[in-house]
Write the structure tokens for this entry.
Amino acid sequence: MVAAAALPPLRQELGIFPAPPTADGSPSWTLHDPASNRFYLLSWPAFEMLSRWGLGSFQAVVEAVNTETTLSLTEGDLLDVIAFLQQNFLLEAASPESSERLRAAFDAHRPGWAAWLLKNYLFIRIPLLRPQRFLDRAAPWVSWAYSRSFHAVVLLALLSALYLISRRWDLFMHSFTAYRGWEGLLTLGCAIPLAKICHEFGHAFTAHRYGCRVPSMGLALVVLTPMLYTDTNEAWKLTSRRKRLGIGIAGIAAEMLLALAASWAWLILPEGPGRGAAFILATTTWIMTIALNASPFMRFDGYFILSDLLGIPNLHQRSFAFGRWWLREALFGLGDPPPEQATATRRRFLLLFAYAVWLYRLLIFLGIALLVYHYFFKALGVFLFAVEIGWFIAHPIYREVSSWAKLSGRLRFNRSTLGTLLLVIFSLAMLAIPWQGRLKAPAVLSAAREQQIVSPLPGVVIDEPAADRRTVRAGEVLVRLSSPDLEQRIRQVRTHASVSRWQVRQQAFDEELLRQGKIPQRRLEGGAAEFAGLNEERGQLTVRAPFDGSIVDRNDELTPGLWLSRKEPLYVIADTARNKVDAYVGERDLNRIALGAQARFIPDAPEFGAFSCRVAEIDRVNVPVLDDPVLDSTYGGRIASRRDPQGASRPEAPVFRIRLHECSPAAVPALRLRGVAHIEAEKRSLLVEAFRYAHAVVIREMGL
């Protein structure tokens, strides 16, 4: 009989410590396994059974618990505890069968060379320091940091610093671009390690203050990225949730103190290298603390702080269990109970938290995969990219889908399975059927003809007949200029021409002129040509409209007597009776567009309405430089571009111009309109497009 059976012996080195009460107020305890340095949260019934383990038999333990406490347990509850102990190897290996089981578990968890290499590439922990003696000696010297008076002083200093920085906010923001180059990178390389050292010692000193042993501090390499760590596992022995929170917050608090000191240094120091270093240290610490350490989505400080605040140990694992349970119920309607009993509010939180963590990690792991791809040479980068995608993204998905296959015997046709079937069919149809017949392209609407009128020569404004006009006719005078320098040259040429003309007339009567031969005649002809050229330049000083149109822009400084330099802008004339749209598409979409295809331009400013157009021209050569700054990403446009040394905007990826004509309505606003062109194109399925894109990427990256 099970009741008379002897209990298996527990390992002698296990320790049990009080833990904070659970959410429902019941007491709990922590079981510590020093061999693996793991901590297990024990419920009240489990603790009562383990504390009477020395009674030796099932019946004795169950009867003692039921007699001496208000609990009502059965032998099944005791069997569950034994299963937990066996699963985590907390029982003595007192028999050959137990020893064989330990060996089998060891062999099963011993990784092969590929798994070992993968694990050590993803995460390596290198202990560098055993700080216990140092903490014992230095703790009295930092005890002032835990006093309430110091906290009040810090709060006052923080509010004062924020106020003073807000008064100089323009200068503070300008510093982001002022401290660049190798000097800024070197300072940044020193600031980050300093902040992280303060962070880890904040954890260490606080854990020591609350009586926890800190066995090691060192360096962890996470995907070859160095990070400092402090072993504060003994914080699980603390019964006070406030003290656990204190240890978790201490690292962030230490970094914030460093950032506060650096902020005050920036406020006090004069301009120079010291102030630049203080700025970089302050901003780097603020940003990294908020973005990295305070995030609860990875197992950093923010996660443990949130876990202690909510009183939910193993928050990630428990929320993931709820996330998988809800997904299976939504897809298959199995009717399984939730992973654990929880209130409706807590259940909703765990579900939302699980999916938020999964989405966050998906983005982070994709970013890491791209980072390692670009960090190493191409062959190794491709391999590491595949490892990141396969291990962190594809493997969890495959593992979950594989678990669905094991549920095939329990599946029944119900509302959930019907919805799942329809969803799968709809998704496959959306991927396989070529339904996408329109493509979107960044575009700009402008007048069919537009020209900037500039000053042809340096000169002074005489008068401006077009000063009060909004529309002009071709050839109509816009502004008259005068160039004293040009007039002086004309007078000189006229004088020289008069002399040359007299010499030609008198050549037959003067022996010296006769000896010059045809030189006077050539001089006369050259002077006449120069005079004609200067007169042509004088004619350019009367600036006329090149075509019928409207004045959409005017130099507001134009006034009689104003001196102008060469090519100084005067007007912008546009033919506002007709318009055109220039759209820009990528190389993949170019062959999908045909001449005469319908298009629709939707401006960003909705008050102008939509424009119906047709494709009139398709450039077969990519645009090397963006002529429309409104489409440049630097100015908020949709085309990613960069500035070359000459200041021109060059697209990051090849783009091709599509010219749209016959746009209706034909009206043109005074300024160019940025928007999106929806162009009819050849229909293609998303699956084919994805395959083509992946094939092109593989060919490009493999250098074939």
